Amino acid sequence: APVRAVVPASDCARAREFYLETLNLPEVDIPAPGKDFMVEAGEGTQLYVYEREAGTKADHTVASWVVDNVEEAVEELSERGVVFEQYDMPGLKTDEHGIADLEGTKVAWFKDPEGNILSVTEPPIAM
What we know:
Distance between the termini: 25 Å
Order of helices and strands: EHEEEEHEEEEE
Number of strands: 10
Strand order of the largest sheet: 1-4-3-2
Strand content: 35-45%
């Protein structure tokens, strides 16, 4: 079944602008309490953003989009103002574009305005 990721936001208006305008994800028309909203994240998956005073406390990736080409996704998102994270630690080093190659799986991480960690992932080609 499709997965629906749920992420908190202390400022839903700011989060809505990021997900709808910066990431260009279409909003799903649902009855949502307060300022909460949902976006279509591709192939039947959705991302629900709800207002929470404290925002996020997660220090891990909360949602990842599987893409055909990470380099193209990073370039397109960078042009829209997305800033990719840079990591340089044992077992995880990103290149100048923020892309890591993890044994054939390419991943690039970025944060939404609330600090939720998101990524785009290109899985290795099946043999």
